[in-house]
Amino acid sequence: xxxxxxxxxxxCGGMGGSHARHWTQKPQTDVVAVADVSERSxxxxxxxxxxxxxxxxxxxxxxxxxxxxxxxxxxxxxxxxTVKAAESGAKGILGEKPMASSLREADLMLASCxxxxxxxxxxxxxxxxxxxxxxxxxxxxxAIGTPTAMLRRDAHGLLNRGTHELDExxxxxxxxxxxxxxxxxxxxxxxxxxxxxxxxxxxxIIAFEGGIRGTYESDLPDPGLQGDVIYGTEGIxxxxxxxxxxxxxxxxxxxxxxxxxxxxxDQYDEFISWLGGSVEGHRNDGDTARLTMELMMAIYExxxxxxxxxxxxxxxxxxxDLMVEEGALPVEIHGRYDIRxxxxxxxx
Length: 348
Hints:
The protein is of the alpha/beta class. Helices cover 35% and strands 26% of the residues. It has a 9-stranded mixed beta sheet with strand order 16-15-14-13-7-12-11-8-17. Strands 3-2-1-4-5-6 form a 6-stranded parallel beta sheet, sandwiched between helices. A 3-stranded mixed beta sheet has the order 10-9-18, with no helix packed on it. Helix 5 (103-115) runs antiparallel to helix 9. It starts with a strand and ends with a helix. The relative contact order is 0.14.
């Protein structure tokens, strides 16, 4: 009989509910407790999943002996809670993206999990979508020759949606090693995302080993970049409609439409298998997520120093915060606003 695991959820908003639903659907896991600073939110989620509610996550961790802890809070408190969960005796922690709000925080999370022999993964769940899994397979098998460039485009902030875009870029390219980054940001409004400062606009070029160039942009004006294309020495691969892929290479005349096969596992299945020892790793493990975090912070750091940033990044603090606090990004359009969780003055 397979091992069963007690699951605790910290953060009872939308993502907390999503994690609870997924864990409940797995025969090996049982959601036994939930915690949130809002008693109302904790009780609501607890009632839905027949779990015990807490308003103090430390109390929950001490009393419930959770094997797995899902941390779905805002990123500005995620590092502290991850350290607490690692110290509690949990076997595994599944956090949400972005991993943290600075590289130093990400390193604290990894160090604590290493010290206490806790498996850590971060919810970059797009590594499990059929389209992305098939794209990676085609690239790794040489369907477009050697990859040379990839384009990604999105909106609503680097730490918000950009974390998915950069992680997808690396995944589909086969997780090449990044070498340097050059980036630019603007922040003329007092924009935030879940109580972490957010830029207005962003663009970057990432150089990977082997000469691959990744181009990323967020919130830039039209005309828009077609941000779903991989170029190679022998072809082009891009996303098609309704989850398909479209391939052009020298082996066939014209564009081919490919329907990716289903992916039989998700990040929760793989996490359970990782804990049980039937797989050696998790495609969303903490070290992989830290690299995505490093790329985002390197983009900010490049804007701060106005130069190329060679990796590994040495700056532990969030360089966007440093720029704001140094006066390098003065607010020209006043009135702070949060694009995900409105400040009280936004709702008054």
